[in-house]
Amino acid sequence: xxxxxxxxxxxxxxxxxxxxxxxxxxxxxxxxxxxxxxxxxxxxxxxxxxxxxxxxxxxxxxxxxxxxxxxxxxxxxxxxxxxxxxxxxxxxxxxxxxxxxxxxxxxxxxxxxxxxxxxxxxxxxxxxxxxxxxxxxxxxxxxxxxxxxxxxxxxxxxxxxxxxxxxxxxxxxxxxxxxxxxxxxxxxxxxxxxxxxxxxxxxx
Length: 204
What we know:
Layout lengths: L26 H33 L39 H6 L19 E8 L2 E7 L5 E4 L4 E2 L4 E6 L3 E9 L5 E9 L4 H8 L1
């Protein structure tokens, strides 16, 4: 009589052989699980970078730069001065006064005399004085100082030199300069101031 085999669905005997470890599976199964997990992470990372690239492409559509064209450079055209009969304004030259202006130009290095500190119209002739065969004129300043002058002395602020003295006036030659810088001579005179008593008598 043959022994009956185990029926289908029968559980293995307890304690007969080793049970599979509860942590599961062979080393090859664990390697496959780790690889699948890495692929999943890579797929997620690639998807996030793709979103960033898409956003940057959308933002860059309206930010296209525009370069201005370079300015046109014209060739240098040198200026040619053809007015040879006129002085060249681009060359330094010495301005020389004319001969006439040199003839009347005053001596600026000369030492000034006291009466040259006042305008001629501010001075007054108050009398004359004869001494050593020379005639002197008595001139009063606005400060009421009295000076003796004779021919050759200077008076006023226009380089006036005394050329003659009489009982009634002092004759002078003055030097004046015009707007062009030329000097010229002019004659002037300082009249004798009349006494106040005589002036009052004339008014009566």
